[in-house]
Amino acid sequence: MNRLKELKEAREAAKKTIKTIDNAINTLANAQSWGVWDMLGGEFITSWVKRRKIKEANEDILKLNKSMKHLNKELEDINMLLPNRISQTFSDTVLDLWLDNVFTDIRVQGEIKQTLEKLRQLKKTIQNLIANIEVEIKEIETPK
User: Fold this and answer.
1) What is the pLDDT of residue 19?
2) What is the pLDDT of residues 46-85, one digit of tens each?
3) Which regions form coiled coils (predicted)?
C-alpha cells in the first residue's frame, strides 16, 4: 500500500507541474503576440507591455523550477527522476526597451519561441510520466 500512496503523490505533483507549465506557456504566448506587434513598428508602450509579459513568464518559470524540484522529490520515492532545470535567457530587458530596433525584436521573438518549445516538450514528458504512473497504479489496485 505504501507504493500506491507514493505513486498517487507523484501523480498529483506531476499534475500540478503541468498546470504551472500551462501558465508559463500562456504567458509566453501572450508575450510573443505583443512581440509581433513590436516588430511591426510598435512604440515604447508595445515594447513595455511585451517585456511585462516576459517578466510574468519568467516568474512562472521560477514557479515551475520549484514545482519541478517538488516533483523530483516525489519521483525519488518511486525511483524515477526528471531534469529540474529550465533555461531562461531573457537578459536584455534594458536593451530591448531603450534600444528598440527590429533586430533586437527578432532575437527576443526567437528566444520566446525556443522557450515555448522547451516548455511544450517538458509538458509532453510529464504527461507521459503521468500515464506510466497511472498504469502502475491500476496494476496495484486491480485485484489478481
Assistant:
1) 97
2) 777 878 888 888 888 888 888 988 998 999 888 887 754 4
3) 54-81, 112-139
Angstrom distance (rounded) from CA 68 to CA 123: 11
| Full 3-state SS string of 83-133 | CCCCCCCCCCHHHHHHCCCHHHHHHHHHHHHHHHHHHHHHHHHHHHHHHHH
Domain boundaries along the sequence of the chain: 2-141
Angle at 88 between CA 41 and CA 30, to 5 degrees: 40
Q: Amino acid letter at 93? A: T
Q: Would you state the cell numbers that stand for residue 26, as one nine-digit string?
A: 500562456
Residues 138, 140, 144: CA angle, nearest 5 degrees? 100
